């Protein structure tokens, strides 16, 4: 057997080496560090689950967890529904030129880093010459709103700016799936006298079910990875409302130099993400890609 498939085994060695070196080893090393009083220089005594206990008893960790769930959950739900609506609307556009131009415009933000996107939104929400306050002024509002300094707006701004950035990417996935829908289904719907809305409801949306599952699961895995957006758009006034778990691990690692505690927090996030993904995968029957 080895002699017959030897060349295939040799070809798979680089792939295995890559995953062992860059995936499995860091995971195992991180697990060890999470159970140590880690120091860059000197001994690193084993402390068992003490770092996990420190994290779980830290009110700052739970505050960041609440912020992560609210911002990430809001982004997940709105970011799942909005691209479907936009994709369905674009699919109904007859003029191909306008359709392609709109796709290009809404896809652009996905290509920008959060430094650019955050700067755009901070400027648009500025009380001085910001586009949003300018529109509100035209509608009759006397005083400008300091959006980036109002705690009640902070989480919503993070949610909608994230949805705005990723809207085009998810929208293109749905449009690509719509192209692959068998035209005979629409012809059969026409023969049955179905209107435009009925074709969307009974043909298009059911045919997008597999793509919806993939998009939802991918976005779900990103709920606890929010970090760079917060670093760019947060400030001292709204920090308590928008600081997230990844920011907590960054604080513990590079500012407090408590790497054992930071790694324990990171491992709690990994475990929570895996459990959540497993539950959602079972709930939406991800494997039934019909």
From TrEMBL:
It is found in: Cell membrane. This is ABC transporter permease subunit. It comes from Paenibacillus spongiae. Belongs to the binding-protein-dependent transport system permease family. It is a multi-pass membrane protein. InterPro entries: MetI-like, MetI-like_sf, UgpAE/MalFG_permease. Keywords: Cell membrane, Membrane, Transmembrane, Transmembrane helix, Transport. PANTHER family: BLL4140 PROTEIN. The keyword Cell membrane applies. The keyword Lipoprotein does not apply. Its main location: membrane. Residues 65-280 form the ABC transmembrane type-1 domain. The chain crosses the membrane at residues 7-28, 69-93, 105-124, 214-239, 259-280. It comes from the Bacteria.
């Amino acid at each position: 057997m080895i002699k017959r498939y030897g060349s295939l085994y040799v070809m798979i060695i680089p792939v295995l080496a890559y995953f062992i070196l860059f995936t499995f080893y860091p995971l195992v090393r991180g697990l060890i560090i999470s159970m140590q009083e880690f120091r860059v220089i000197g001994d690193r005594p084993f402390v068992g689950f003490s770092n996990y206990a420190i994290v779980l008893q830290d009110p700052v960790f739970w505050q960041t967890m609440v912020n992560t769930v609210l911002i990430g959950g809001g982004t997940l739900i709105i970011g799942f529904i909005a691209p479907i609506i936009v994709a369905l609307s674009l699919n109904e556009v007859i003029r191909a030129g306008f359709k392609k131009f709109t796709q290009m415009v809404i896809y652009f933000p996905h290509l920008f880093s959060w430094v650019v996107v955050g700067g755009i939104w901070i400027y648009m929400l500025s009380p001085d010459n910001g586009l949003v306050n300018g529109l509100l002024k035209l509608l009759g509002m006397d005083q400008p709103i300091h959006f980036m300094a109002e705690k009640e707006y902070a989480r919503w701004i993070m949610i909608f700016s994230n949805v705005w950035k990723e809207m085009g990417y998810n929208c293109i996935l749905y449009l690509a799936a719509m192209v692959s829908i068998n035209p005979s289904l629409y012809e059969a719907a026409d023969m049955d006298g179905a209107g435009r809305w009925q074709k969307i409801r009974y043909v298009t949306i059911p045919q997008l079910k597999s793509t919806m599952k993939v998009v939802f699961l991918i976005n779900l895995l990103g709920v606890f990875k929010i970090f760079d957006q917060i670093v760019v758009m947060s400030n001292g006034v709204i920090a308590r409302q928008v600081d997230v778990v990844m920011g907590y691990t960054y604080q513990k690692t590079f500012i407090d130099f408590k790497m054992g505690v930071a790694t324990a927090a990171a491992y709690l996030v990994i475990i929570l993400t895996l459990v959540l993904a497993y539950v959602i995968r079972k709930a939406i029957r991800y494997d039934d890609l019909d």
